[in-house]
């Protein structure tokens, strides 16, 4: 292990940011809180992104580790104890200084504090607590704090920290127990689920406390989240989505995040390094399905099954479902039930709401739908307005599939770059055309 | 004959024109509202210059609030801050359309009505831009300790974002300068914010930063670059979420 005495703030921040960047959750949503006029900060329910880094991910919180020293040896992690990297730690004061100075310049929405495990889980959790306590009570910071509960730390400590944070998360890391055992030998499913259950129960109690005493301290008001690594182990999309559904239903989680596996270590238990890059399309499909569960009243069993355990690569899960269930369509915009409107490809939950409100006051036509934000080139196969379809179309699986695949799906660019692309006469796809002309 | 009321591009001006058009009780299609520098002359039309008055604006504000409700008031106010020249017509049209509903407070749901749809579009555009500046605005600390931010929005978003920052930074002295419209929001610690327009500012004074400013900026830039995962890099996706248009005054995109 390399030990260095003096390190500048800049170096420390670089090391501890670099070590924290693989954590995906960087949202600042879920809680609305006005400032009380005596300190600094407030929170907006929808969350605020303050910047976007070169990989196109949002920067909302100052995402850092307290320390990158760690006694655990998880195979996929940069900070695992068997890696020889420069180790360093922040002090609580340094964390407060950085957070406050960044926050008042409107760089960030708050702090995301995670940590490697220094000495023991309890010891680390204590350190995190002292940093957050200082930030909340000495600096009077009222912005957003997202904190990681360290697996294995005592539940009392986790609870104490929960009263200072807005959101807490314990990473599930891998979808199944077996994979967890294989890749994170020091973590156990039990140690991860115990704090999750505790936070859930405590939140429930807290709701009642607040109902009785309006000024009772809030416990994790923005709820808890977790994340899973995708593509490091052989689980199918179906298995992953079932775990997700369980977490939403049984643990009352706010969000489940998916993180496409990026190889940082060589290990015989990890997939071999390839040139393909992280499985971003798969991650994207999982997020799409995740939204269908949370906002569109879908169940996992409607999207995937044992026989059909992975998402369609070519088509998003909602479209895929619609094409398999043509017996439901076409749907009459001026009459259909809200929940049925949600199932039409091209209609989001916001536009569905607008439709329901607007049709009370007038008859909706296709032109109106466009202005309300409905994506007609996808929706037109599935809807009628006053009994008419937009164009004469067939309600036929092959026909609709062909036509929908013709209008390209708007994938995030990072995903689009990875796969095939259409050739055009004027593209120079590294054929080196220019040298040919003597340039 | 159609009569078009001409006004200045301010909320007071716009509402004064609405007041005149409304009080003369003109039928649909017989009244229009145009902004002073954006008039497209039409045939068979007479043009009247509106006399601007605070009193008229307040009367219209009260009318909207009591009949159309707070929600519609908010949407119409946002629409009135838009940079589009037809906002006056859209607002007036929406108010006329509201009279035909049994429950006028429902007016903003009436998206099949063209002028309501336009107001919805305009206010959404203003709201979105205001939200962008809540995200992407950057304060720099001046020598005097004042936090200073410069923005160049298309719409007049200052009054939309000022309450947000006043709530967030109550103990700081800060100001936001809207370069496009030549307006300032000034907030003195522990006091209410004020909107200042039509002033000449010596811009060079905004370039004198405090001692620690450079250090903090360096830390932030370092953080900004380190947080990106190399294997996932995608400048197109970054541009999709954070258009280059908004990067002008952002610390992390300074050269």
Question: Topology of this structure?
Answer:
The complex is a heterodimer of chains A (439) and B (255).
Chain A: H1 9-18, E1 51-52, E2 58-59, E3 61-65, H2 92-104, E4 110-114, H3 121-138, E5 144-148, H4 155-162, E6 167-169, H5 177-183, H6 189-212, E7 224-230, H7 237-251, E8 255-260, H8 280-295, H9 300-303, H10 317-324, E9 331-332, H11 338-341, H12 349-358, H13 366-372, H14 376-379, E10 383-384, H15 397-406, H16 413-418, H17 433-436
Parallel strand pairs in A: 3-4, 4-5, 5-6, 6-7, 7-8, 9-10
Antiparallel strand pairs in A: 1-2
Chain B: E1 2-7, H1 11-23, E2 31-35, E3 45-49, H2 54-80, H3 87-99, H4 114-136, E4 140-141, E5 147-151, H5 158-168, E6 174-178, E7 183-187, E8 194-197, H6 211-226, H7 235-241
Parallel strand pairs in B: 1-2, 1-3, 5-6
Antiparallel strand pairs in B: 4-5, 6-7, 7-8
Helix pairs in contact in B: 1-2, 2-3, 2-4, 3-4, 4-5
What features would you describe in this structure?
The complex is a heterodimer of chains A (439) and B (255). Chain A folds into two domains: 9-234, Alpha-Beta Barrel (TIM Barrel), CATH 3.20.20; 317-418, no CATH class. In chain A, 38% of the residues lie in helices and 9% in strands. Chain A has helices spanning 9-18, 92-104, 121-138, 155-162, 177-183, 189-212, 237-251, 280-295, 300-303, 317-324, 338-341, 349-358, 366-372, 376-379, 397-406, 413-418, 433-436, and strands spanning 51-52, 58-59, 61-65, 110-114, 144-148, 167-169, 224-230, 255-260, 331-332, 383-384. In chain A, helix 4 links the parallel strand 5 (144-148) and strand 6 (167-169). In chain A, helix 2 crosses helix 3 (121-138), helix 3 (121-138) runs parallel beside helix 4 and helix 7 (237-251) packs parallel to helix 8. The longest helix of chain A is centred in the middle third of the chain and has 24 residues, at 189-212. Chain A is globular. By secondary structure, chain B is of the alpha/beta class. Chain B contains seven helices and eight strands, in the order E-H-E-E-H-H-H-E-E-H-E-E-E-H-H. Chain B has helices at residues 11-23, 54-80, 87-99, 114-136, 158-168, 211-226, 235-241; strands at residues 2-7, 31-35, 45-49, 140-141, 147-151, 174-178, 183-187, 194-197. In chain B, helix 2 packs across helix 3 and helix 4 (114-136) packs across helix 5 (158-168). At the A-B interface, helix 1, strand 1, strand 2, helix 2 and helix 12 of A face helix 4, strand 4, helix 5, helix 6 and helix 7 of B.
